[in-house]
Amino acid sequence: LAKTTQPISMDSYEGQEVNITCSHNNIATNDYITWYQQFPSQGPRFIIQGYKTKVTNEVASLFIPADRKSSTLSLPRVSLSDTAVYYCLVGENQAGTALIFGKGTTLSVSS
Amino acid sequence: EPEVTQTPSHQVTQMGQEVILRCVPISNHLYFYWYRQILGQKVEFLVSFYNNEISEKSEIFDDQFSVERPDGSNFTLKIRSTKLEDSAMYFCASSSGTGVTNSYNEQFFGPGTRLTVL
Description:
heterodimer, A: mainly beta, globular, B: seven-stranded mixed beta sheet, 11 strands
């Protein structure tokens, strides 16, 4: 399994764009990059997944460079409700595969 | 929007007692999972279940743990003889496996059951 490294914590203000970078130097050819979000006392929630280049959905964008050794989750114009832990996961996009979580990045958004 | 539900939300038990945590996965999903999160620590995979059998389990999932899908809707986790270190939040998750959502392996988590072992 590819090891992931991401910042332990980040601070931001409302309305700012937040970029969380994850490094995964040992990513395998079949691996996808997936980000989950977890609010306090709740289960994790899928945000976005990508394999290469850029993926965008209604919540976030995911930027993946050509070498795929890192990825950046971009949250546009964060609000207080975006305060959560964000996890970067790397693994096969295969149904039934266990999700292996790291410690994640705790994002704190203040006004 | 369909969601995974779990009961109870909080379970307090004495060390050595058996507990059963219950989950109702999203109705058309085929894959089911249990994870746990000790307070302040990361989410840890316990077990995955497909086609009425365990497909993968972690080292944490020892003989004290068992899972069952007793009917077409419920998915349970049993801990036979609880230990103090079993105190954690237990999350059930499910996935469709069909790729109709964002990912073949997008897992939908329930709100969790907080297990406290005294």
